TrEMBL record:
Gene3D superfamilies: 3.40.50.40, Ankyrin repeat-containing domain (1.25.40.20), L-asparaginase, N-terminal domain (3.40.50.1170). Keywords: ANK repeat, Hydrolase, Repeat. It comes from Cryptotermes secundus. Residues 54-267 form the L-asparaginase N-terminal domain. Residues 286-402 form the Asparaginase/glutaminase C-terminal domain. Substrate binds at residues 134, 165-166. This is asparaginase. GO terms for molecular function: asparaginase activity. ANK repeats lie at residues 475-507, 508-540.
Length: 614
């Protein structure tokens, strides 16, 4: 859109090309620097990050690990997958393991070789005792996967689920609902040809999934297939034999792997609550998918709506239409809805949404059938199963939630368009091209500046312009890192409610929680803990060092910071001393610190000089 200001800016720019005496304005400097300045690469830049990330791979079965049995049919083979992967040099760096990992870690972890990506990805493959073709998987399998991730949630940075492709879209959709307040990356992948065969898509799929899960915080259940990362509850299996077997027809991929990894930050479904991650471990099995077809008999429909059914996804024609001349059918649907059965209207088309454009669609909405918008049948069915299993929600709440966008599974009416921020407009940078080129450079810097200044109204404006509050600066530091150092509790709360991820690490492996600890911002530490922040496990030795150093300096405040962050205060430093030893040696009265240590088992041994001298 051209406005007067924009016209001014263009005028200034064209003037500049002809007028040598013109002094460039700030907007021109921005444009010249970032639009065509030398040395500005066109794609994302690879930056290296210190340290390692840990990914848990849950291997549930599927073609990826199958071989042919004596009847020449593919079946999953136990205890073969990891052995095979360990022998592939691009999947496992034996040398690194030999020199860097402890004896117990060596047998547990595989490690990806050094790449241009940010961290070394260590991964542990947990093979299920009963490997399944995904056609044999059902709700109990989804619950088991969810609980396994919950059990290991704090020990890993990200999760990869190896799964058969046939029912993968159901599993990914179900997990997306069962994971409440998810803060880490969960990727489901599989393959069309087993990894053991020379021409397999499985090796690339697992490699890509590991690189993404180990380097990016994408707090969603996603599906990685053939270089594309899709939102899990938007996916469907679209091909029985192509390597490009999955697609998300109503949503572009969240990330694409090519020479560069391109993550579409705008597409990520960000957190907007201050709550800890938890798993909702039950699902209601009394749900079904009913696909209409011309001449469907009323007996078939009636049989479908018999108890114990509680929820039905009705797959209708086109934009959500049903034969309006079938009075018997409409009466049956109305009666079922009156009995409290939730009926969701989803299209049989692969792409698009249901709406009330036609009389044949409008009658369904009028009969109390819930519009499923653009949900896939897999998403609608698993969402129904999740919603119906909530015992503390009444029927109206369940009806309402089926229409609400819970995990990015349906388009909520906003077209995703953004308006230019006041800041860019003030500089006259308001054309679409200006925005696109500059937002990746200017918006993150503006966010950080406003975070430092505590300017929430300005951040609101930037948010409406599409600013991403999880964006990283050159050192991978996010607005939340900065706010935690600044000690502005209100700002931290604002960021957490508006898409900031608590688990993002900067170049040196520092999380926002560690920043809040280093600045002894106790209220912020408590708020982050409420949101599910935790100390990185790989940091435990350093925590011992820091505790001892705090004790040596007599910093009760720092010890309390670690206490509020859930640290084990009896953790030793590299020489085996604990903070309590140091306090004792320094001659401070231990009672002064007792409030901090009351949860620590203080044995007389821990005080003894004998222990200290070891
Ligand atoms: N490609 C595959 O993984 C198909 C297999 N039948 C499964 O779903 O387990």
């Amino acid at each position: 859109m051209h406005t007067e200001r924009n016209a001014d800016a263009n005028h200034l720019l064209s003037n500049h090309e002809t007028n040598h005496y013109h002094t460039p304005s700030a907007s021109e400097i921005f444009l010249r620097t970032f639009r065509s300045g030398p040395g500005i690469p066109s794609g994302p830049i690879s930056r290296s990050k210190e340290g390692e990330s840990r990914v848990l791979v849950l291997y549930t079965g599927g073609t990826i690990g199958m071989m042919k049995d004596d009847k020449k049919a593919y079946v999953p083979i136990p205890n073969a997958f990891e052995k095979y992967i360990r022998r592939i040099p691009y999947m496992h760096d034996e040398e690194y393991v030999g020199t860097r990992l402890s004896a117990t870690e060596k047998s547990k972890f595989l490690v990806l070789p050094e790449m241009t990506d940010k961290t070394r990805v260590l991964y542990h493959i947990q093979e299920y005792s009963q490997l399944l073709d995904s056609s044999n998987m059902a709700m109990d399998s989804w619950i088991q996967i969810a609980l396994d991730i919950q059990k290991s949630y704090e020990a890993y940075d990200g999760f990869v689920i190896l799964h058969g492709t046939d029912t993968l879209a159901y599993t990914a959709s179900a997990l997306s609902f069962m994971f409440e307040n998810l803060g880490k990356t969960v990727i489901v992948t599989g393959s069309q040809i087993p990894v053991f065969e020379s021409r397999s898509d499985g090796r690339d799929n697992i490699l890509g999934a590991l690189v993404l899960a180990g380097n990016y915080v994408i707090p969603e259940v996603t599906v990685f297939f053939r270089n594309n990362l899709f939102r899990g509850n938007r996916t469907m299996k679209k091909s029985t034999d192509a390597f490009f077997a999955f697609d998300s027809p109503n949503m572009p991929p969240i990330a694409k792997i090519g020479i560069n990894i391109e993550v579409n930050a705008q597409a990520i479904f960000r957190p907007s609550t201050i709550e800890k991650f938890r798993v909702h471990p039950t699902l209601n099995p009394n749900v079904g998918l009913l696909r209409l077809f011309p001449n469907i008999t009323i007996q078939a429909v009636r049989a479908f709506f018999q108890p114990p059914i509680e929820g039905v996804v009705l797959q209708t024609y086109g934009a959500g239409n049903i034969p309006s001349n079938r009075i018997d059918l409409m009466e049956e649907l109305k009666a079922a809805s009156r009995r409290g059965i939730l009926i969701i209207n989803c299209t049989q088309c692969i792409e698009g949404s249901v709406c009330s454009t036609y009389e044949t669609g409008m009658i369904l909405a009028q009969a109390g059938i819930i519009p499923g918008v653009d949900m896939t049948p897999e998403a609608a069915l698993t969402k129904l199963s999740y919603v119906l299993s909530k015992t503390d929600w009444d029927l109206n709440t369940k009806r309402e939630l089926m229409q609400r966008n819970l995990r990015g599974e349906l388009s909520s009416g906003q077209d995703g368009s953004t308006k230019p921020s006041r800041m860019l407009t003030n500089y006259g940078l308001i054309t679409k091209e200006d925005q696109a080129e500059l937002e990746s450079v200017i918006l993150p810097a503006c966010i950080i500046q406003n975070v430092i200044e505590g300017n929430i109204p300005e951040l609101e404006d930037l948010k409406n312009s599409g600013a991403d509050f999880s964006s990283e600066n050159g050192d991978f530091r996010t607005p939340l890192h900065i706010a935690c150092c600044e000690g502005n509790l209100e700002m931290v709360e604002y960021l957490l409610l508006n898409g900031a991820c608590i688990h993002m690490k900067d170049r040196y492996g520092i999380t926002p929680l560690l920043d809040a600890i280093h600045f002894d911002n106790h209220d912020i530490i408590k708020l982050l803990m409420k949101c599910g922040a935790h100390l990185p496990l790989a940091h435990s030795r350093n925590v011992g060092e820091e505790l001892c150093s705090a004790a040596a300096k007599g910093s009760l405040k720092r010890l309390q910071s670690f206490q509020f962050a859930g640290a084990d205060l009896s953790q030793p430093d590299f020489s085996g001393n604990t903070a309590l030893h140091i306090i004792y040696v320094e001659g401070a009265r231990p009672t002064q610190y007792m409030d901090c240590f009351n949860k620590v088992h203080v044995s007389s041994e821990m005080y003894s000089p004998k222990y200290r001298s070891q």
